[in-house]
Each structure stands twice: as C-alpha cells, then as structure tokens.
Design goal:
Elongation Factor Tu (Ef-tu), domain 3, seven-stranded antiparallel beta sheet, globular, Rossmann fold, seven-stranded mixed beta sheet
C-alpha cells in the first residue's frame, strides 16, 4: 500500500497531482522513467510518468488527467488514502549529458513529464529553454516550477489569454528566427503536438526526442499493447522507450492506435459517474 501525502487539483479540467509514499522508487527512479499503479485489487494497471521525486522524504509525485474509470477512481482519493500497488521504476531512463542548449517543449499533462526530464538536463549543466503551451490560461500547469527550472521560459496559449498568442511551434520558430543555437529539442505532450514539432525540427535539422504515451498494460514488454513503429521496426515503448528519436517515429500509426479505445474510456467514465 502506498499512502497519498498530498493532493492538488491543477486545473478545472481534471488534471490532478498526487504525491505518494514510495521510498524505494524515489531512490531509484531517473528522469524519463515511469510507474504502473493499481488503485485497488480489481483495478486496471495505469502507467504514469513521475513528475517529481523526493528521495529524502521517500515520495514521488504523479500528474494525470481523468479520462476513464480508473483515473476517475484515482482522482477520487484524498490525503491519507492509499493505492494498492505501485510498480517501478520502469522504462529506460533518459540519456543525459552536457551537450549545450536543450529546448524542452511541453503541452497539457506532458509538461509534468518534461519537468522531470529537464531537471536532469539542468543538473548536467545544460542551458535550458522551456516552451509550454495550453489551449487557454486556466489549463496551463507547473508554470512557476518550469520558470524556476529554465534559463528562459516561453508560455503560449491557443486563444491568446496568456503569454504568447499561438502554438508551441510558433515559439520554436521564433527561437530559430532569432538564431538561437539549439543542440537538442525534447517534446512531450499530445501526439498531434509532438508530430507538429517533429515536422518543424526536421526542416530545421534540430535533433529531436519525443516521449511516447501509447496504450500500455503490463509495462514489461509482455502484452505488446504499447507497440509502435520506430525506424521501420516494431518497438515496445515500455521497455525500449518511452523516449525515441522523433524523426523515426510513425506518428500517424500511433495516433490511430491510441484513438482505438477512446469511446470505451468515455463510456466507462460515464458509467462510473452514474453508478455513484
């Protein structure tokens, strides 16, 4: 059992932050790795990336969006409640070294993943430029934390309600136009956003990595649910990733596969709400 020691509602659109007691995971997990949890004995396995770890206090923080029954159950828990299982760290840690200027681009809940990744790059001595975006101001998360971490932070909103009016790709284009030297781009967020960033960085010739979020069940490479095409080969995001060379990822295939169970997720969420 893993007790919840802190809970925050980050936006009005069901983005939740939970801090859990998990001392062994907190000691071992590295930027880019993830955990799999079960709320209770009958709950499904939910893969989530860790946004923060506090090795001294033995806690990890996860940030997630309510999209189906399991995440709704998780969101219903409060401080003092406990979840049944927490397995990790899983996946490959990000390869981090001092390379120069790293531009991290995040959208939605992907900003939480990006924060953990950029923390590692900052500790390695890299210059960090952050670009974070949301459809509107009240959907933006972790702005203060990202601003404290980055040497420069650019905030964009689709509707212009805050920061730069536009998309994260517009901010990336502005960096290129001002002749900013960029050694690596890391993009984390919705697949459509990561595809758009990749299409742009391919033109600019900027090395780019993405953190993939395919459908996942066991997290150990056994089920094959998280398979994706990378460089013309089948890879399992849970054991081969979740980080890949963006130029090798077949985003169109991955977007199609990830949308397969959207209707079922919405239906399970509505069923669980009606049953309360």
């Amino acid at each position: 059992m893993h007790t919840i020691v802190d809970r925050q509602e980050l936006t009005k659109r069901d983005l939740i932050s939970l801090t859990l007691e998990a001392p062994q995971i907190a000691r071992k997990i590295r930027p880019g790795q993830f955990v799999v949890l079960r709320v209770n004995d009958t709950g499904e396995r939910v893969p989530l990336t860790v946004a923060y770890r506090d090795a001294a206090n033995g806690t990890v923080t996860i940030i997630f969006q309510v999209v189906g029954k399991s995440t709704a159950m998780l969101a219903s828990l409060g401080v003092g409640d406990a979840i049944k299982d927490l397995c990790g760290p899983l996946g490959k840690a990000e390869h981090i070294e001092k390379i120069g200027t790293v531009v991290g681009i995040g959208g939605g809940s992907g900003i939480a993943v990006l924060h953990h990744l950029l923390t590692g790059h900052r500790e390695a001595g890299n210059h960090i430029i952050g670009v974070v975006g949301a459809r509107q101001k009240d959907l933006l998360i972790l702005e203060d934390e990202m601003r404290a971490l980055c040497d420069e932070l650019i905030v964009t909103t689709d509707d212009g309600s805050y920061g730069v009016h536009g998309k994260v790709t517009d901010a990336l284009a502005a960096l290129v136009e001002r002749h900013e030297h960029i050694d690596r781009v890391i993009a984390v967020g919705p697949l459509i956003m990561m595809r758009a960033v990749t299409e742009m960085t391919r033109i600019y010739g900027l090395p780019t990595e993405v953190s993939l979020n395919p459908i996942m069940v066991d997290g150990t490479g056994m089920c094959g649910g998280c398979r994706c095409s990378v460089g013309g080969e089948t890879k399992f995001a849970c054991v081969d990733g979740p980080h890949f060379d963006a130029f090798k990822v077949d985003f169109d295939e991955l977007i199609q596969r990830n949308s397969m169970y959207g209707r079922d997720e919405r239906l399970s969420l509505l069923t669980s709400i009606k049953a309360r």
